[in-house]
Amino acid sequence: MKTIAITSVPGFDEWREASRECLAHGIPPEDIIWQNVQSVQDDLFGHQEQTRATNKLQIKHSIPKSALVLFKYALCHSDTNRFALCYRVLWRIIYENRNLTQLKTDEDIIQLYMLVKAVKRDAYKMSAFLRFKELEIEGKEHFVAWYEPEHYSLEIKLDFFRTRFKNMRWSILTPYRGAHWDTETLLLENNPDPSAVPDDDRIEKYWLTYYANIFNPARIKTNAMLNQMPRKYWKNMPETSLIDDMIKQSGARAYKMIIDGNKH
Predict the structure, then answer these.
(1) Left, alpha or beta for 211 (phi > 0: left; psi -120 to 50: alpha)?
(2) What residues contact residue 82 under an 8 Å CB cut-off, 6+ apart?
(3) How far apart are CA 112 and CA 106, in angstroms?
(4) I want to staple 153 with a disulfide (CB 3.0 to 4.6 A). Which of 9, 123, 233, 256 is the partner?
(5) What is the pTM of this model?
(6) What is the C-alpha to C-alpha distance for residues 92 and 63, in angstroms, rounded to an integer?
(7) Are β-strands 2-6 and 32-36 bridged in parallel, bridged antiparallel, or unpaired?
(8) Closest by CA position to 59, among listed 24, 34, 27
């Protein structure tokens, strides 16, 4: 058995190098134990020596780019079995069916797409629910946000934030990694300190006023809202402090809108 330790998150680069080495030596999926920072997998015979990938490859394999894209997303999932699953699919693509990822009824492929879908959804929620707060650093405006994704999806959205806020200095902090943009350079740091995010700022009151004004009580659908914006995200979204009261008042406000409309 070969034990491979992936020490970074999400771990795609380490996994790719390790997989290349394993493929070069013809090591099948069932002979590999993947370890990571979340869990340690031991085989039935006790601890095996942990190894890391080297660049001394004997054989190079090519796989479809579409499969690599799937692996990149899937390896951003928090599932501790993601490395083993992706290597198993990789092995099967090379030795069984180059078009394996197109077989949507295959059990491994079903699992792979489930991970990919969850990560993409998590990444979308980051762009929708992340809220910046303003700081002043060395006399310059700097915007910082704390966000808690379900998976390791920060890196997936960095191009979006660099493009959307390219002329703004910002930091996005998550429990596992922080990203800092100074309008020119993007820097990443591990395990950032959430206390760097202020409790409130001058922007927040304007955002709350705006949100309260665009709220339409006649179109409120609580279940649909909670499905799209689960309560677990609320603690880092200032506008959610208004939602409960606005829902309670929605009936009266909707009735007033009808009465006011009939007067015209």
Answers:
(1) alpha
(2) 74, 75, 115
(3) 10
(4) 123
(5) 0.72
(6) 11
(7) parallel
(8) 24
